Please model this.
Amino acid sequence: MAGLLIAVSMACLYFLLASAVDIANDISAKILSGAIPLDIGKISAAVSAELAGTNSQQLTMTTWVLVVCWLVGIVDSYRIAKKT
Model:
């Protein structure tokens, strides 16, 4: 059970981190090219727009799967602790 939880959690974390790095690279490239001015409000709006893009449903689902794995891991550890 623990191996499965670890594998699923690692896959979710990889997807979330890869998405975050892709968004950061896109935003930084736009800043360097001058498409986005060096203003925190404009950068924040650009990040929000990127997050609302095509991957938003996948990011939300991946986050929920990670949370469920975390909660199942907690419950499983308490179950194992009670047995011993």
